[in-house]
Amino acid sequence: MSSISCIIIDDEPLGQELIEKYILRMPSLELLAKCDNAIDAVEKISTLKPALIFLDVNMPEMSGLELVRTFGVNPPMVILTTAHANYAVDGYDLNILDFLLKPITFERFVKAVNKAKEKLGSQLPKQQADVTAAVKQQGHIVFKVNKKFINVSTGEIDYIEGMKDYLRIHTQTRSIVTHMTLKRVEELLPPDEFLRVNRSFIVRKSAVSSISGNMVVMNDNAEVPIGTNYRDIIKKLTEEGRL
User: Fold this and answer.
1) Nearest-angstrom CA–CA distance, 59 and 62
2) Rounded to 5°, angle at Cα 237 from 232 and 240
C-alpha cells in the first residue's frame, strides 16, 4: 500500500509538534501540511486533497467539528484530537474515524492510523488516481518548496531534472527544487505535452528548440542529453513533426 497523505490542523504548537513527531515515525504516512486554524485548512484540504486529517476540535473562529460539517462528497478521513472527552459523541455522529484524547500516546496514535489503513484498503490506489486526474484537469501541480506549497502551471514548465528523490523544475521564470521522484511527477504531467528523454530528464515538447545530434536543445539554450533507450521515439517524433 502507498503512503497515506495527511494534514495536521491544531492551533496549539505543542499539539502540532507531537502529531508531526508521530507521523515521522511511521513510513506509511506522508505529511502534506500543518495548519493552526480551520479557516486556512479549508484551502489546504481543497488544494492538496489529503486522505487523512488529524483535527483538533477546540479552535478559534471555526471549530474542528464545524470544519467537518463543511465537507462535501468524498471527504478525507478524520481523526479528532482534543483534551475534552465530551466531544467524542459529537465526533462519532459525524462519522469520524477515531478520537484521540490528549495527551496522546504513540501506541494509541498507531491504533488510529491502523484504522485508516484498514478503511482505505484497495481504495487507496483509486483515490490517488483521482487526485492525479484532478491535477491534470486543473493544469497545475502543487510542489512543496522550503516548507511552503506553491502551484505551478504545467504550461510554465520547460524541463524537469531528476536528482534521486528530488526534482529541479525549470520554468520560464524560475528554478524550483522539491522533494518528489521523477516517476511521480511524470504521472502528474499531461503525456501529450511532455516527453521523457533520458532516465533523469523530462522536457515539455513545445519548449524544445531543436535536436542536435544526441542532445535536445531547449528554448533557453540548455542542452539535455538523449538517452540511448529514448533515441528511437524522439527520432520518430521529430520525423513526424511532433517535436
Assistant:
1) 6
2) 125
Contacts of residue 208, defined as CB under 8 A and 6 or more positions apart, other chains included, come to 216, 217, 218, 219, 243
* 52-87 pLDDT per residue, tens: 999 998 888 888 888 988 887 788 999 999 887 665
In angstroms, the CA 45 to CA 74 distance is 12
> At 25, phi and psi to the nearest 5?
-85, -5
Tell whether pTM > 0.85.
no
CA dist 198 and 193 (Å) reads 16
Average pLDDT over residues 116-139: 57
Q: pLDDT digit string (tens) for 89-113?
A: 455 557 788 989 989 999 999 999 9
Nearest to 54 by CA among 109, 3, 94, 118: 109
The end-to-end CA distance of the chain, in Å, is 37
Cα–Cα distance for residue pair 75/73, rounded to 1 Å: 6
Do residues 141 and 154 lie in contact, with contact meaning Cβ atoms separated by under 8 Å? Answer: yes
Q: How far apart are CA 75 and CA 60, in angstroms?
A: 22
Q: How confident is the model at residue 142 (pLDDT cuts 50, 70, 90)?
A: confident
SS3 127: helix
Output the nine-digit C-alpha cell for 69. Answer: 460539517
Q: Which residue has the higher pLDDT, 142 or 32?
A: 32
In terms of Cα–Cα distance, which of 97, 121, 172 is closest to 1? 121
